Amino acid sequence: MPTERIRRTFTHADEQGNIVESREEIIIKREEHEKPTRGSQFKQKALDKTPTKLKNPSNLQVRVRTGAVYITLTVLCIIASDATTAIYLAALSAICAGEFYYMLRSDAKLPNEVLGIVASASFPLAMWLFGINGVVVMVSLFIIVLLVWYVFWLHARIVDVAVSLFGAFYTGLLMSAAMLIRMSVPDYWGGVWGNDAFAYLIGSKFGKHKMTPQVSPKKTWEGFFAGLVFSMAFWCLFPLIPGVEMNIVQSLVFGAICGVLGVIGDLVESRIKRNAGFKDSGTIMPGHGGLLDRCDSQFLVTLGASMLLIFGNCLPFTFISTGVLF
After folding, report:
1. pLDDT of residue 197
2. Mean pLDDT, range 126-132, rounded to an integer
3. Residue 283 above 70 pLDDT?
4. Distance CA 185, CA 317 (A)
5. What distances in angstroms separate CA 21 from CA 7, 16, 26, 278, one per listed residue?
6. Which letter does DSSP use for residue 169 in this model?
7. How far apart are CA 45 and CA 41, in angstroms?
8. Is the model more confident about 113 or about 200?
9. How far is residue 290's CA from residue 95's CA, in Å, rounded to a whole number?
10. How confident is the model at residue 135 (pLDDT cuts 50, 70, 90)?
11. Where do the H-state alpha helices sit in the chain?
12. Which of 82, 126, 181, 220 has the fewest CB atoms below 10 angstroms from its CB?
C-alpha cells in the first residue's frame, strides 16, 4: 500500500510565553484504486447510454414506473387463474404483515411475527380452498395459538397479543375478501388503484386545502373528491361485466362508498406510521414506500366491495360453499 509523508510547521507558546516553532511529520497511507470489474464496467456503459431524463427521474416518474410493474404483475396473476390469485394475495398479505409488525416493534410492542405472518398468508388461501368456512376455522385456530403463546411465553403482554391479532386481521383477513370477489368479478382491482392514482395526480397538482394535516400532510380535499369521482365512474362499468346485476344508482352509490373507504384505509395506515415514527412502511416499492403503503386503501375497499356486491344481490353468491375443495 503506497504511503505519503507530509511535513508541517506550526508555532505555539511555551510555559514562559516564548514563541516556539515545531515540526511534525505525518505518514498517510493511501489505498490503491481497485480495478473495475466487468460488471461495474457494464453498468457504467449502460448508465452512460441512458438518457438524462431517465438518470434523474422525478418522484412522479418513479411512482409511475413502480406502479406499472406492480399493476402488470397483479393483473397477470389475476387473469391466469384462481390459484395464482390466491398465491399472489397470500404473498402480498405476508409482506404487508411483516412491514406492519416491524413498525410496531419500533413502538415498543412485541408481536409474534411468525404466527402473524403465517396467519395473514393463510387467510386468502383458506378462502380459495375452503371458502368462508375455511376462513372462520383459520381465525379460530389463530386465536387459540396466540392465547397458548401468551400463556407460556411470560414476556408477552396482552397488548402484544392484540397487536399480533390485529396485524394478521388487518393485512390478511381483509385481503381474503379480494379472493371472494375474484371468483365472480376478475377485473375489479383497477378501481382501487385508479382512485388512489387519480387522487394523487389531482391533489399534487391542484390541492390547496389540507384534509388531515396531522395524519397525512399530503392529502387534500381536491384529491379526495377527484378520487371519489373516478371511483364512481369506474363502478359504472360494473353492469357491463357478465354475471353482475347492478343498476346505475347502485353503481354510483357503491362507487362513492368504496372511494370513501379507500381514503379511510389510507389514513388508518398513515396514523399507524405516525404513531410508530415512520414515514414509509418499507422500501420495497420505490416512489411509494413499502407494500403496505400501496395496499392500505385496498384492504377496506375489497371488504366493502365484497359486502356491497353480495348483500346488494349483485353477484350469484352463496355462503354455503365457495371454496375449491369444499
Report:
1. 46
2. 91
3. yes
4. 11
5. 13, 14, 17, 55
6. I
7. 6
8. 113
9. 9
10. very high
11. 38-49, 52-55, 59-80, 82-105, 113-152, 158-168, 176-182, 189-206, 221-235, 248-276, 291-311
12. 82
SS3 15: coil
For residue 186, give every residue at least 6 positions away whose Cβ sits within 8 Å of its Cβ, in sequence order, or none.
Answer: 78, 79
Give the Å distances, CA to CA, from 221 to 107, 227, 257.
30, 10, 16
Q: Write down the mean pLDDT value for the chain.
A: 78
pTM: 0.75
Residue type, 147: L
* Type of residue at 269: E
In whole angstroms, give the CA distance from residue 236 to residue 218. Answer: 28
Region of 310 (left: φ > 0; alpha: ψ -120 to 50; beta: rest) is alpha
- Give the number of other Cβ atoms within 10 Å of residue 264's Cβ: 16
265 closest CA partner among 293, 232, 307, 227: 293
* Residues sharing a CB contact under 8 Å with residue 104, sequence separation 6 or more, in sequence order: 111, 163, 167, 272, 276
Confidence at 55, pLDDT banded by 50, 70, 90:
low
Instruction: List the Cα angle 297/196/128 in 5-degree steps.
Output: 45
Q: How many CA atoms lie within 13 A of 278 on its CB side?
A: 23
Q: Which three three-digit cell numbers place residue 320? A: 354455503
Rounded to an integer, the average pLDDT of 177-206 is 55
Measured CA to CA, the distance from residue 218 to residue 210 in angstroms comes to 7
pLDDT in tens, 78-87: 888 889 989 9
- Cell numbers placing 200: 394523487
Phi and psi at residue 5, in whole multiples of 5°? -95, 130
Q: Which of 325, 311, 297 is nearest to 178 (CA)?
A: 297
Buried/exposed code over 177-201 (b: 16+ C-beta within 10 A; e: otherwise): bbbbbbbbbeebbebbbebbbbbbb
Q: How far apart are CA 30 and CA 67, in angstroms?
A: 45
As beta bridge partners, residue 145 has none
